[in-house]
Structure formats: structure tokens, C-alpha cells
Amino acid sequence: MELELDIDIDGWPSGEWAALAERALSATAQVEPAIANPRLSTSLLFTSDEEVHALNREWRGKDKPTNVLSFPMLEREDLLALAQDGPPEMLGDLALASGTCEREAAEKGIALEDHAAHLIIHGFLHLAGHDHVESDAQAEAMEALEIAALAKLGIADPYGDRN
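That's the Endoribonuclease YbeY sequence above. Prediction below.
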């Protein structure tokens, strides 16, 4: 059983975004079992660059757009200690910026759907307490989880061109 995912789509091109998000969640839960807790819920907003920019400015103090924002509501230790039974718990919120995602996918020469799946997985891992800022080891561990989850979706390693 997986967490409850509330999806809102506004300002994205037509597509099967909700289904993509559900598949990305399932793949992420297979590599990060902590988010498979049925008590958890998360909201995912597919929105405009302008909205993500405003959220980034208001909540993170960064006056610029970005591709994905994650707003975790549980510390990793609390998530790992969360029993399967009990009242609902909010894991956090995610927001994806359409224009930035489209531009990045085009620059990488990959399908928008594949890039969006990567960013959704990346966001879920942040909600689960993973990070890539503090150390190279953290970044490598998080990338390994992303690569494993993407492989479950049949999506190539987005970091494969590094070295």
C-alpha cells in the first residue's frame, strides 16, 4: 500500500501527468520503502514557472524559478519511525514548473515525460529526507536511488553522461 497522492494540474501541456506521477510514486516507493506507508499523503502541483517562482521566493527566499520544489513536513527520523497504523500524516508537497521542465528536457534531448518523472522522483526523495547539498556522498546516494527508480520505469540514467 502506498501513500495517498493528491494531484493538481494547471498550466501544463495536455498529457497523462497524473498517471505518470502515480507510476513515479510507485517506482520511488520500491527504492525508498519509507514513503510506502499508507498513512502518508502528499500533494503534487503541476504548474507554471511563475507559480513555482513565487513559491520559491515566498518559502525558500530564492527569487528565481526552479524545476521542482519540495516542502517536506516530516523529518526523516520521524518518517522512518512512523507506524503503519494510525492517523493520516502529511509527508509534504511538491510543485513542478512547466516551462523550466520543458526547456530542460529540450536541452537534454529527452522526452518531457521522462524529465518530469525524474523530477517527481527527485522530489519524493527530498520529501523522504534525502538530500544532495551537504556532501558528495549524499548526492551520490540520492542519484543512485533516482537511477534505480527511473530504471523501474524504463527511463535511462539521467546522470550517465557525467564522469
